[in-house]
Cytochrome c-550 PedF (Paracoccus simplex), 228 residues
Amino acid sequence: MTSRISKTFPLAVSLALWAPMALGHGDTAPQAVDTTGLPELPAEMASENPWREADGAVLFKAVEIGAKGFNSNCARCHGLEAISGGLAPDLRFLEASDFGDEWYLDRILHGYEQNGAVKMPPFEGILNQQAIWAIRTYIETRPDADELAAQGTEIAALHDKVKALPPDAGADEAQALAAELESAGSGFEALSGAPRAVTVLDQAAHMLRSGASHAPAAAELIHGVLRK
């Protein structure tokens, strides 16, 4: 995994330095991100992702908020779900390491210019530390989209089970289905080499852990993958 990342991402960076700014998705002006629900972090900027080893609620909240922050600020150039169209670095391959964090922090805080033209605006003073690391957490937990697509039949079957779960189902039934979703999600690795990938199956399982009343939202989340 590491050798693939170390070879692929620098190449993408090299190409991006010479390419014009990609036009794609999201807004053009940097936007603040609501980080309600995430733990407070010290005033001093961390040098590495503080939520890389997080479990449970913190990890999923970071991914949820990071996804929103990425879509509103980064997807325009780096692609929806961080899948680059080729003109900007494919951030899914940015190593989940000290090197990757250093590169990421430099770009997100200071932006990037080429020949006097702003290719990426600076986000320092716009994004707080929680938002910065939430976006990083979202990026580095991305699984291989092609591998997900290859499991479409299995994912569709799980979607049907979640959709059929009555909102008033007992806790045991909801927990059992959540465990099944988690088992299916555990088969995917993060392209960054992060400790774990967070797929829609993992996110749906986390929702069901809170009760069967969340089944409709969990089913819709999974259905989003099947529509692609």
Notes: Residues 1-8, 10-27 have pLDDT under 50 and may be disordered. The beta strands are 112-114, 117-120. The CA atoms of residues 190 and 196 lie 6 Å apart.
